[in-house]
Design goal:
The structure holds three protein chains of three kinds. Chain B has helices spanning 3-45, 47-62, 65-76, 80-104, 108-116, 121-155, 164-172, 176-207. By secondary structure, chain B is mainly alpha-helical. Chain B has one domain (8-208): MetI-like (MetI-like fold, Orthogonal Bundle), CATH 1.10.3720. In chain C, helix 1 (3-45) crosses helix 4, helix 3 (65-76) packs across helix 4 and helix 5 (108-116) packs antiparallel against helix 6. The longest helix of chain C has 43 residues, at 3-45. Classes of the chains: A alpha/beta, B mainly alpha, C mainly alpha. Chain B: This is ABC transporter permease.
C-alpha cells in the first residue's frame, strides 16, 4: 500500500542562500504521527509547507497517498490537508463556528451538515458548543483558540493533518494538556499527522516516529525509544537533553518489562500501565529493591526490580 | 448688520447653500470611493502598480487645494464638474492609502492559514483580508469626507456654489455676519461627519480586533 | 503673454512672494512644533490634560482651514497675525498627536530599566523617551509642514501675501499663467520639505537601532 506521505530526495533552496532542505527522504505511514524536530532554521517548517505547497521544492518529489502533489489541483490538495499553525491564525472577524466552517463551506456542504459538524468538533476539542459557538476568537484564551484551530483543521475530515509548532505559543501547562488531548483525539480518529516542533519532549510525547533535522539534513529517523536510547550523534543527544534515558523510561510501560520472580509483601505496588519512570521513582522513594505489579483489578500479576528496568531500557534501544 | 437679524432673514438661503454643499461633497466622496477602493486593492495585489499609484496620489496631495481648483479652469472650465474632479483627486489619497494600509496590516499568520486551508486568492481577499481591513478603510474614508466638506468651500471660487459663496462674499465685503453664516454650517457639517464616522469606525473595529 | 514673458516681467515679485511664503511657513511651523511637542508631552503624562485637549484637537482637526481663516478676521483682524494664528493652530495638531502616541508607545521596559538605574524623571524624558519617539514626532512635523505650505496659499484671501497671491490672481483673472506658477512653486516647496523631513525621520530612526 502507498504511504500516506512520502518525500523523495526533496531539496529546497531559497534565492541566494544555502539549501534550506537537502535531499530529504522519508515516509509517513497511514494513521501514524511523524514529528519533525530540530532547532530553528533546520528546515522543518519549510518541509511541512512543501506538503501543502505553501512553498514548492526546488528538486525532488513529494507524494500524498501515492500521488505526486504536483499533479493534484492546488486548492483541492490544501483542502484535503488540515493545517494548524503556531500563531493559530483564526480569522478574528468570524465567530468560532464560522472559523470552523470555512473549509466545509468552500466544499459546499449543506448548511445542516455543517452545523452538526461544527458542534461535533467543538465537543471533540472540549469546548461546549452552546457556550462557544458564537464567540469571537479574541474572547478565548490562547489554549481555547488553539483548540478551535485544531477543530478548524479537522472540519472537513481530512485524512492528513499538518501542524506547525501548534502549541508553541502556549504556556507550559496548557501545552501539556493540549498535547494529551491531541493524543486522545488521535486515538479516536487515526489521522496521519505531521507535526513540526523544536521541542524534543513534544516530539517524544506525540510522535510515533521522529525525524531529527539539522541544517536541512535528516540526521536521524526512528521511533522515540530508538532516538532516546541511541541518538545518532552529539547533536541529537544535545537536543534530547541530559535526562534522555529518563524520558526513555517514560515511554515504556511496566507491563512490558515486568518479570515473575517472587516478591516480598512490603514491596510497593505499581500498576501495569504505569511507566518505568514512575516505577523507578517508587523504588527510589521506598528504598525497596523491587515492586509488585498489579493489574486494573488490583491483583498482583508480576514483579519489577531495578535490574529489569535497566534491562528494558537496553531492550528498547534495539 | 445684527447677526440674528441676518440669520432670520437669510435662513432660507443658508439652508439652500448647505444642501448644495452636502450634495457636492457626497458626489465627490462617492466617486473617490468608487475609484479609490478598487485602486487600493490593486495597489496591494500588484506591487509595481502600488508603488506608482501611491506616489502619484501623494504628489497630488501636496498640490495646494486652492491651486488644484485653479488648475481645473484651463482644463475643464468653471462650474460643478471641475470642482468635483478637484475634490475627487484630493480625496483619493486617504481612500487608496487606507485600503492599501488596511490590507497590508493583516497579520501574516492569518494570511498563511487562509492560504494553507485552501482558499483561492480571490476568496482570501474577499472573505478574510478585506473584512479585516475595513476599519482602516473606514478611517481613510472619514478623512476623505472631512476634507471634502472643507475643501468644497473653495469650490465657490470656480463657480460651483456651496457655502463658500457666503464665506468669500463675506470676506470681500468685510461682513462678519456673512462670513459666520457661511462658516458655521461648514464647521458643523465637518464636525458631524467626523464624529458620526468615528463612531461607525469604532463599531467596526470593536466587531473584530 | 507666455509663461517665460510673465516670469521675466514679474521675476522680483515672484521671488518676494516665495520669501514671504517661506517666512510665514517657518514662523507657523516653529510655533506649531514647540506647542505641539509641549502639549503632546502633557497629554501623554497627565490624564486630565488628555481628556480636555484630545476632544478639542479632534474638533479643530475637522475645521476647514478657510473657515478658520475667515472666522479669525472678525476676531484678529486682517493681517499678519490673523493669518498666522489659525494656521499655526491647525499645524499643532499632527505634531501633538504624534508626540503623544510616540511617547505612549515607548517600550515600557526601557523606561523601567532607566528608572532602575536611577535616572531622574526629566532625564528619562529627554534622554530615553523623546529620542525613542523622535521618528514618530518628526513624521508628525512632516505632515504639518506639508499641510502648512499648501494651506498658506489661502492667506492671500485675507490680504496677506504668499504664493497664494499668484493663484488668487490667476483665478480672479482666469489667467492660467500666474496660477500655474503659484501652484507649481508651492507644490515644489511642499515636495522639498517632505523629502527633507523624510530624511530626518530616517536619521532619527537609524539612531535607534
Amino acid at each position: 500500500m502507498a504511504h500516506a506521505i512520502e518525500f523523495r530526495n526533496v531539496s529546497k533552496q531559497f534565492a541566494g542562500s544555502r539549501n534550506a532542505v537537502e535531499r530529504l527522504s522519508f515516509a509517513v505511514e497511514e494513521g501514524t504521527t511523524m514529528a519533525l524536530v530540530g532547532p530553528s532554521g533546520c528546515g522543518k517548517t519549510t518541509s511541512l509547507k512543501m506538503i501543502n505547497r505553501l512553498t514548492d521544492p526546488t528538486d525532488g518529489e513529494i507524494l500524498v497517498q501515492g500521488r505526486s502533489i504536483r499533479t493534484l489541483p492546488l486548492l483541492e490538495l490544501r483542502r484535503s490537508l488540515g493545517y494548524v499553525i503556531q500563531y493559530i491564525g483564526l480569522f478574528p472577524h468570524m465567530t468560532v463556528a464560522d472559523n470552523i466552517a470555512v473549509v466545509p463551506k468552500m466544499l459546499k456542504w449543506p448548511k445542516a451538515k455543517i452545523d452538526t459538524r461544527v458542534d461535533e468538533l467543538l465537543e471533540l476539542v472540549g469546548l461546549p458548543p452552546t457556550e462557544y459557538r458564537y464567540r469571537r476568537p479574541r474572547a478565548l484564551s490562547g489554549g481555547q483558540q488553539q483548540r478551535v484551530g485544531v477543530a478548524r483543521a479537522l472540519a472537513a475530515d481530512p485524512p492528513i493533518l499538518l501542524m506547525d509548532e501548534p502549541f508553541g505559543a502556549l504556556d507550559p501547562i496548557t501545552r501539556l494538556r493540549l498535547q494529551d488531548e491531541l493524543v486522545q483525539i488521535q486515538r479516536k480518529l487515526h489521522k496521519t499527522i505531521v507535526i513540526v516542533t523544536h521541542d524534543m519532549d513534544e516530539a517524544v510525547r506525540l510522535g510515533d516516529r521522529i525525524a531529527v533535522l539539522q541544517n536541512g539534513h535528516l540526521v536521524q529517523l526512528g521511533s522515540p525509544a530508538t532516538v532516546l536510547a541511541k541518538p545518532a550523534n552529539d547533536f541529537v543527544a544535545d537536543l534530547l537533553g541530559q535526562d534522555r534515558l529518563l524520558k526513555l523510561l517514560r515511554k515504556t510501560t511496566v507491563g512490558a518489562a515486568m518479570a515473575r520472580s517472587p516478591i516480598t509483601t512490603d514491596a510497593p505496588r505499581i500498576g501495569e500501565k504505569a511507566s518505568l519512570e514512575e516505577a523507578l521513582l517508587a523504588l527510589l522513594a521506598t528504598g525497596m529493591p523491587g515492586a509488585a505489579v498489579i493489574n486494573d483489578a488490583g491483583r498482583i500479576i508480576g514483579s519489577l526490580s531495578a535490574a529489569e528496568i535497566v534491562g528494558a531500557a537496553k531492550a528498547a534501544a534495539c | 448688520m445684527d447677526i440674528s437679524a441676518f440669520l432670520a432673514s437669510n435662513w432660507h438661503r443658508i439652508l439652500d447653500l448647505t444642501l448644495g454643499h452636502i450634495e457636492l461633497s457626497l458626489y465627490a466622496v462617492g466617486i473617490s470611493l468608487a475609484i479609490g477602493l478598487p485602486l487600493g486593492v490593486l495597489c496591494y495585489c500588484v506591487r509595481w502598480i502600488g508603488a506608482v499609484v501611491l506616489n502619484l496620489v501623494s504628489v497630488i496631495y501636496t498640490v495646494p487645494t486652492l491651486a488644484l481648483f485653479g488648475l481645473m479652469i484651463p482644463l475643464l472650465g468653471i462650474g460643478i464638474l471641475p470642482a468635483i474632479v478637484a475634490v475627487v483627486l484630493y480625496s483619493l489619497l486617504p481612500v487608496v492609502q487606507g485600503t492599501y494600509t488596511g490590507l497590508t496590516a493583516v497579520a501574516p499568520e492569518i494570511r498563511e492559514s487562509a492560504t494553507g486551508i485552501g482558499m483561492s486568492y480571490v476568496a482570501r481577499l474577499w472573505r478574510v483580508e478585506l473584512p479585516l481591513a475595513l476599519p482602516v478603510v473606514f478611517a481613510g474614508l472619514r478623512v476623505a469626507v472631512v476634507n471634502a466638506v472643507g475643501m468644497m468651500t473653495l469650490a465657490s471660487l470656480i463657480g460651483a456654489g456651496g457655502l463658500g459663496d457666503m464665506v468669500f462674499r463675506g470676506i470681500s465685503t468685510v461682513s462678519w455676519a456673512l462670513v459666520l453664516a457661511g462658516s458655521i454650517p461648514v464647521l458643523l457639517l465637518a464636525i458631524i461627519a467626523d464624529l458620526g464616522l468615528r463612531t461607525l469606525e469604532r463599531r467596526f473595529a470593536a466587531r473584530q480586533a | 503673454m507666455s509663461l517665460m514673458d510673465y516670469i521675466s516681467l514679474y521675476r522680483d515679485n515672484i521671488i518676494d512672494l516665495i520669501w514671504q511664503h517661506l517666512l510665514l511657513f517657518s514662523l507657523s511651523l516653529l510655533g506649531a512644533t514647540v506647542l505641539g511637542i509641549g502639549l503632546g508631552i502633557a497629554v501623554a503624562r497627565l490624564r486630565i490634560v488628555a481628556s480636555v485637549i484630545v476632544p478639542i484637537v479632534n474638533l479643530l482637526q475637522a475645521c476647514p482651514e478657510i473657515v478658520l481663516l475667515a472666522v479669525s478676521i472678525p476676531l484678529l483682524g486682517i493681517g499678519f497675525q490673523g493669518a498666522l494664528i489659525p494656521l499655526f493652530v491647525k499645524g499643532v495638531l499632527p505634531i501633538l498627536r504624534n508626540t503623544a502616541s510616540g511617547l505612549a508607545n515607548v517600550d515600557e521596559r526601557t523606561v523601567e530599566a532607566a528608572r532602575g538605574l536611577g535616572f531622574p524623571p526629566l532625564q528619562i524624558l529627554f534622554r530615553i523617551e523623546l529620542p525613542s519617539a523622535m521618528p514618530v514626532i518628526i513624521s508628525g512635523i512632516r505632515v504639518s509642514a506639508v499641510m502648512l505650505i499648501s494651506v498658506l496659499t489661502l492667506t492671500a484671501y485675507i490680504g496677506v501675501d504668499s504664493l497664494g497671491t499668484l493663484i488668487v490672481q490667476g483665478i480672479a483673472r482666469m489667467d492660467p499663467i500666474p496660477l500655474i506658477i503659484g501652484s507649481i512653486l508651492t507644490a515644489i516647496l511642499a515636495l522639498i520639505v517632505n523629502y527633507l523631513l523624510v530624511g530626518a525621520e530616517r536619521v532619527a530612526a537609524d539612531r535607534l537601532t
